[in-house]
Every structure is written in structure tokens, then in C-alpha cells.
Amino acid sequence: MKKMIIAVLILALADSVRAAEGPAPDRTVTYKTTTSATGEKVELALHIFTPDNHKPSDQRPAIVFFFGGGWVGGSPSQFYPHCDYLASRGMVAMSAEYRVRTRHGTSPRECVQDGKSAVRWIRQHAAELGIDPDKLAAGGGSAGGHVAAATGTVKSFHEQGEDQSIDCRPNALVLFNPVFDNGPTGYGYDRVKDYWQEFSPMHNIDDKTPPTIAFFGTEDIHVPVGTAREYKRLMKAKGLRCDLHLYEGQKHGFFNYAPTNVYYTRTVLAMDRFLASLGYLQGDPTLREKDEEAREK
Which run of H or of E encompasses 226? Predict the structure, then answer.
């Protein structure tokens, strides 16, 4: 398990370095003030990307992403490229901070609590953000994919004192090699075994689980493809939409931005078409694969 955590953290660090050289958010806002494991004050922010000429009076579709890092580390900058692209397509796109072990001494439980708080805060402040509260998606990668999936599935882990009349379940999920299964044979069981049944997205699918798109590499050793297929089967059994995209020979984190990474482009294109099918985006994707561009020249 230690080797797995180290590998995930290395991926998250590399993603952060790459993203730091690219786009930057238009602004940040604090969505939650909480505490670390030692009782120190912690302010958690949303890193917000907005379309050109965006106004609070707009009612744009929106998405919030949660970074990967095994619930241990990671950075919101991982999803800056995704946010920047979706903002260029007309959405308000956000990448959320949440508590993790290396910075706050917290457990996976707090990660999900913060994820739910973020979705709830965004919906509560929709009028200020210029978004449609009924077109709010959540996304993420790896453990961040788990956080996003948990906001759409698990029933517990609400932050005490928050207004639970405001729904923290997103309207759609965009998940990059997410942790679906926290059971005895799944990811992170040793850290969540006391509450895994309430914590595991795969074990909490219900009739209200949002339409989902999920991306996996077939050589992912952290979240096996069999888990992804089982999740899709369970969704289909309830008549729910789950678009599963598998990429042959790819490992964990294959989707992250890099200038020459064709799998970043391919997953973003699929994400675009999924969101367009839900009415979140209009027109054709503006990102194009290099080989397609070459053929047209």
C-alpha cells in the first residue's frame, strides 16, 4: 500500500508541475473554513475559470474538479487545463482545494466531507457565480475521482452545521480513473475499513446517481478495469447512464495534461461530447487531435 501511495503522489506532483506552466484561474474564492487534524484553521478555496465576458447574471453550466493524490496530497492545478478548456467552451469551471493527510493530517473521511461542502456551496451561491444550479457537474482523478463520485452516491459524510436542504449531489459526473471500490479487495480499504460500506461509491449507487462518464487505462494497477466494468454493470442494472472509455495499454494517470499526450486530448474530447449530450456545451469541440489536423492539411 505504501508503494501505491508513493506512486500516486509522484503522478500528482508531476501533474502539478506541468499545470503550473500553463493556464491560471481567473480568481479564487473560499468555500469553507474548517480545521486540520490538530485544530488549526484551514481555508479551502475554489480556483475558478470563467468564460469571456462572464457576468453574475449569467446562468452557465458549471463543473468542479477534485485533484488526485491518494487522499494524501495533490494540487488543484492538476485540472487547470481541463478548466481552461471548458471555460473556453462556455462553462464556469472550478478546481477545488480539500483537506489531505500531508497538509492537514486528515483522513479520507474529510476529503469526502469537503467535496460535498464544495458542491453544496457552489449550488448555494449559483446566483453570485453566474451558473445554473441544475447544471452542475463534478469531476476528478483517482482519489479525487472518488471524492467526485462520492458526492453523487454516498449518503453520509456531511459537514456538521451545513444546510443539508441544499443538495450536494451533482447533476453529472466526469471521472478519470476514479476509485470506485473501497471494499476489502478495493483501493484504500485499510484506511477506511471502519466505514467502507458507507464510503464506497460502488456500494452506494441508487436511482439518483447522476449520469457518468469514466476513463480508464487497461494497464491501471491501482484501479483495475474489472472494477470499472462492474460499476458500469451496476449502473446499467438501474437504468442509469455510465459511459465507460477504456484506453489500451495505458496506466494510472494516463489522462493528465502534457503537450504531447494524445490521451489528454482524447479524454477531453470525449468529456466535451458527453457534456454536450447533456446540454452543458453547444457546438463541436474546439480541441482537436494532431493526427486529425494533419490529415486536413
Answer: helix 225-237
- Look up the domain containing 105 and give its range: 2-296
Tell me the DSSP string of 64-105: EEE--STTT---GGGGHHHHHHHHHTT-EEEEE----HHHH-
Number of domains the chain is built from? 1
Q: How far apart are CA 200 and CA 153, in angstroms?
A: 9
Phi, psi of 53 (to 5 degrees): 60, 25
Determine the pLDDT at residue 140.
98
- Distances in Å between the Cα of 165 and the Cα atoms of 31, 113, 161, 274 are 17, 16, 11, 29
* Grid coordinates of 286: 474546439
Predicted confidence (pLDDT) at residue 297 exceeds the cutoff of 80: no
CA-based radius of gyration for the chain: 18
Mean pLDDT of 83-97: 98
Rounded to whole angstroms, the Cα distance separating 174 from 135 reads: 13
CA 168 to CA 24: how far, in whole Å?
26
| pTM metric for this prediction | 0.91
CB atoms closer than 10 angstroms to residue 92: 27
CATH code of the domain containing 155: 3.40.50.1820
Please state, rounded to an integer, the average pLDDT across all residues of the chain. 92
Q: What is the pLDDT of residue 161?
A: 93
Mean pLDDT of 60-66: 98
Copy the grid coordinates of residue 82: 481541463
Half-sphere exposure of 228 (CA within 13 A, CB side): 25
